[in-house]
Write a structure and sequence with these properties.
- By secondary structure, this protein is α/β, with parallel strands linked by helices.
- The protein has a single domain, classed as Vaccinia Virus protein VP39 (Rossmann fold, 3-Layer(aba) Sandwich), CATH 3.40.50.
- It has helices at about 1-10, 35-50, 70-75, 85-100, 140-150, 205-215, 230-235; strands at about 10, 25, 60, 80-85, 105-110, 125-130, 150-160, 165-170, 175-180, 185, 200-205, 220-225, 240-245.
- The longest helix has 17 residues, at about 35-50.
C-alpha cells in the first residue's frame, strides 16, 4: 500500500495503468502522449513479427527513463535490463516495476555517451527509444548499442528533416567522397528529465541513421510505416522508428 501511494503522489512522464484500475498522473500534454503509445505498439508488433522465441531471450532498454518500455519488454522477454543515467528516473522505474509486480527487470546507472563496450554485456534485443536526438555523440551511442545487440535493434528518434546527398572534396577537387547523411546541431537540456547528459545534441538525418546501422552490422533494415492513430510526427516523417536485424 505504501508503494502504490508513492506512485499516486508522483507526477510521471508516462501514463501507467495501475493494479487498482487507475492511471498515474502526468503533466505531459494530451496531444503529445500518443508518442508513448505509438512507440509501445510498434515495439509489440516488431516482437511479434520478427523475434521468435522471445520468452527465452534477453533485452536491453537503453535510456530506460521511468521504465515504461522496460516493462513492456518484460512481458515478452525472459529478462530485461534498463540503462539510465538519472537517479530520479531509475528510482521511479524501480518503484513502478515493483508496484506492477514485474520481476524480470533490473535497472543500472549508465551514461551511454561515456560507457565503453563490454563483451560480457550483450542482449538479443536492443531498444533505443527517444535518445539519439539528445546526444552530443550519437555515433558512439549507436555503435555501442549495435555492439551490444546479438541480433535485433529497434531505434526511435527525431530526424533532421532533409536527406542530404552528393559528394565532398577529399584533399583535391577530383578526389571526392560521397555524403551519406548529415547531423543537425541543436541545443539540448541536460537539466530536464527527458534531456541528454550535455546541453548539445546532434540530430541525424534518416539516411545517416540507415548508413550507420548498415555499417554497424545490420543487414536487414526496415523503416516502420506510420499507422492510423500514430503520433503526428510519425506521419510527417520527422520522427521515425527503424528495425534492424543482424545475419
Amino acid at each position: 500500500m505504501q508503494h502504490i501511494q508513492m506512485v499516486k503522489e508522483r507526477v510521471w512522464f508516462y501514463e501507467f495503468d495501475l493494479p487498482d484500475g487507475t492511471r498515474t498522473s502526468t503533466n505531459i500534454p494530451a496531444a503529445i502522449l500518443p508518442i508513448h503509445t505509438s512507440r509501445r505498439d510498434k515495439l509489440i508488433n516488431i516482437i511479434a513479427e520478427h523475434v521468435s522465441g522471445a520468452g527465452d531471450l534477453t533485452a536491453f532498454d537503453l535510456a530506460s527513463h521511468e521504465g515504461y518500455y522496460s516493462i513492456a519488454l518484460a512481458r515478452h522477454f525472459k529478462s530485461v535490463c534498463g540503462f539510465e543515467i538519472r537517479d530520479s528516473s531509475r528510482e521511479a522505474a524501480e518503484l513502478i516495476t515493483k508496484v506492477l509486480g514485474v520481476e524480470n527487470v533490473t535497472y543500472v546507472k549508465a551514461d551511454l555517451q561515456e560507457m565503453p563496450f563490454d563483451p560480457d554485456r550483450t542482449a538479443d534485443f536492443i531498444l533505443l527509444y527517444g535518445l539519439l536526438y539528445h546526444m552530443e555523440d550519437p555515433i558512439h551511442v549507436l555503435r555501442l548499442a549495435s555492439r551490444m545487440s546479438r541480433k535485433h535493434i529497434l531505434v526511435e528518434t527525431q530526424v533532421f528533416p532533409y536527406d542530404v546527398t552528393g559528394k565532398i572534396e577529399d584533399g583535391h577537387y577530383d578526389s571526392l567522397r560521397p555524403i551519406e547523411g548529415v547531423f543537425g546541431l541543436t541545443p539540448d537540456y541536460a537539466a530536464r528529465r527527458e534531456g541528454g547528459s550535455t546541453d548539445i545534441a546532434l540530430v541525424p538525418s534518416l539516411n545517416a541513421l540507415l548508413f550507420l546501422l548498415r555499417n554497424f552490422g545490420f543487414t536487414e533494415l526496415q523503416v516502420l510505416p506510420s499507422g492510423e492513430g500514430d503520433y503526428e510526427q510519425f506521419h510527417r516523417g520527422t520522427r521515425v522508428i527503424v528495425y534492424g536485424r543482424k545475419p
